[in-house]
Known about the structure:
Elements: H1 2-8, H2 10-35, H3 44-48, E1 65-67, H4 77-81, E2 87-93, E3 100-108, E4 127-129, E5 144-146, H5 152-155, H6 163-171
Antiparallel strand pairs: 1-4, 2-3, 3-5
Amino acid sequence: MINRIKAAWPWxxxxxxxxxxxxxGMWVTFRTWIKTYRPERKTFTEHFExxxxxxxxxxxxxxxxxxxxxxxxxxxxxxxxCPVDCIYIGKERVENGKGFKITGYTIxxxxxxxxxxxxxxCPVDCIxxxxxxxxxxxxxxxxxxDFSRMPLDVAWGRATLNPTAVADSKVxxxxxxxxxxx
Length: 182
């Protein structure tokens, strides 16, 4: 029928086709909108009880980094492998020995793209991707995490990296592990 109308009046055919297309699109939208109001459907916070209970993530999820400060040898391999240069390592030579001592290990999460390229080159497996999926903050300063100033249970990868621990780490005046001057 639309083809007969188009043949007789081309402009009328265009109007009919436009009205039909819009009506069909609105029907698809309306049908999907109605499905969202099912009584058995829960909201996100009812389903996962967030933030009291963490949201389940996949086994290979690449969340915020976990870092073991005790095994790091300050080789800079992770910082060299990072394509966006978001890892900053502070180190100083060990007295009466060889190697380096970590004085600061900072990741700028405003730059990080969670590619996990920093995990592979680490010879001692001290950095790995965690399961934390959110690190909310109100300023850019809150997205810069210095793992050497974090509380031990968080920095060493035993607890969740959370905004409260990151904020508390910025208040500490000296590194948790004593730093190079102690």
